[in-house]
Amino acid sequence: MATYDPELVANVLARVALAGDGAVLGLTVAVVAVRTWLKFRHNSAALKAIRHAPSVRISDLRSLLCDADSPDSADAKLVVVRGLVQAKSLVEDETNGFKESLLVSPDSGARGVIIQKTQTCLYNEWRGMFGWTSDWRALFGRPMKEQVVTSFRGVPFVIMEDVQWLPSSYVDVKLEGSGHPLPLVTVYHQMHPVQVSPYTVFQCVFGHGYPIGLLDEEKILPPGRVITAVGLCSLQNGVPEIKPCKQLPCFLSELTKDQLVAKLAKSTKVLFWGGMLLSTLSVGILAYAIIRNWSRLKEWRFWRHPYQEQSNPHADVRTDDVSEDVPDGELCIICLMRRRRTAFIPCGHLVCCPQCAALVERESSPKCPVCRQSIRASIRIYDS
To answer: CB of 172 within 8 A of CB of 242?
Structure first.
């Protein structure tokens, strides 16, 4: 195993990103820009749908959904309803109407219709006795955090109006197939020590993270909490039922419709300007990379045929440039064939013939062959 230096890894990543005069970086930015525009399109459609969705009182859902020919409506409509969370057994069991069927948290004793328990093992940044490490996330300065167990329990629940209970004043909530975040409340947050085994100590010697504790968290959806549901509502056996819509970014939220629209509009605006910025940046980087690589291609072709300019009858070549009478001290240090007649600026070295000086100036970063100083221009020197 080898030791990973963050500076070395950052240097390698920078070299890869700038490969091809920034072509890799430009393509990466272009991919991010495309994903940003796709997310902007998704958010724009969701914003338009939520804006046009009617905000309906729960007691008016039956009249909105009920069809004239049948008591059930097969066509689901996108609606926004707001009310209190309550267990479904409270409104369906008429004989035991006040007997709540709720879940009880084993750690905090809190009661809710949904309980989500997460146990997370926390590790410190440990390189081991020999300086070895296998944790790549430590290269970026992030503490390792590995999730161990996540459990989710729930009972059927409904959303009721903030009025005295009526048979028509609730809507059944269905969470099946929902991947949307839920408006849960944290009721338990406790760190526990870890029982370290000899095998764990052996792993730490060879660079694995050293566990420092287990973090237990419990979140619940308590009864009586006011929430907003945005989803597809339909009648099932005469009872309003609301389900999540996969095209929308949220299903249950503590925010009102106006707050949801404002939040979604803000994120859509950020995505729009972010997409514009990333698109412009990617186009600029790719255009620069194309121009630079095209220049290098032309330079490579020129270097493969370095004497192609000699076929030009209009080239400024003196008859005594190629001569057997030129002393060795006055020959071009590159071709060793022609007389030195071009001086570089600003260093002033007179070491090349006009043809070789032109080749040097065509390089991406021209430097004097003698002193390696950057060249701004060259000047032809004539004998008096």
So the answer is: yes
Rounded Cα–Cα distance for residues 293 and 359 (Å): 17
At what angle are helices 6-17 and 19-52 packed, to 10 degrees? Answer: 90
The tokens describing 384, both together, are 């008096």
CB within 8 Å of 246: residues ≥ 6 apart = 177, 179
Average pLDDT, rounded, for the chain:
77
CA 2 to chain centre: 29
The residue that leads in pLDDT, 219 or 325, is 219
Quick one: pLDDT band at residue 324, thresholds 50, 70, 90?
Answer: low
Number of H helices, E strands in the chain: 7, 15
Task: Please report the pLDDT score of residue 37 as a whole number.
Answer: 95
pLDDT of 211 over the 60 cut: yes
Domains of the chain: 1-52+256-304 (no CATH), 56-254 (no CATH), 315-380 (3.30.40.10)
Residue 40 burial by Cβ neighbours in a 10 Å radius (0-12, 13-18, 19+): buried
What is the DSSP secondary-structure string of 45-65?
A: HHHHHHHHS-B--GGGHHHHH
> In this structure, what token pair is assigned to residue 225?
């909490």
| Nearest-angstrom CA–CA distance, 278 and 34 | 9
Q: Is 164 helix (H, G, I), strand (E, B) or coil?
A: coil
pLDDT digits (tens, 9 = 90+) for 221-279: 998 899 999 999 888 887 888 999 888 988 999 999 999 999 999 999 999 999 999 99
Please determine, for residue 309, whether its predicted confidence score (pLDDT) is greater than 50. no
Rounded distance between C-alpha atoms, residue 82 and residue 233, angstroms: 13
Quote the CA–CA distance of 193 and 176 in Å, as a whole number: 36
CA atoms within 13 A on the CB side of 68: 0
3-class secondary structure, 33: helix
